[in-house]
Design a protein that fits this description.
about 30% helix; about 100 residues; globular; 4 strands; about 25% strand; 4-stranded mixed sheet; alpha/beta
């Protein structure tokens, strides 16, 4: 938690990348609800909700000679505004005006 909070305190959006088993057996998910979850599980199904599922570490992409990770995003991140960063800049601007 401290690391995720430090990322946000620095003005960035934090997300958690973890394996499914580790998330479900070693972490307190109730404390992670506000964070984007990127879960690795190399299987034909994830079996739970997530924002991103990394389903393979051995994908092949034309033009890349090595194996690559393959992911499925369950939400559109292309237009996601860095809300934390935006709010941090607003707070700094307000402090400068005062």
């Amino acid at each position: 938690m401290a690391f995720l909070e430090a990322i946000e305190d620095a003005g960035h959006t934090a997300m958690l990348y973890t394996g499914k088993s580790f998330l479900e057996n070693a972490l307190d998910e109730s404390r992670l609800k506000k964070y984007t979850l990127w879960i690795a599980r190399y299987n034909s199904t994830l079996g739970r909700s997530a924002d991103i599922w990394q389903h393979s570490d051995s994908g092949k992409i034309n033009g890349i000679s090595t194996k690559v990770d393959l992911n499925v995003a369950y939400r559109d991140f292309t237009n996601t505004e860095n809300i934390v960063n935006h709010l941090t800049h607003r707070r700094i601007h307000q402090q400068l005006i005062l």
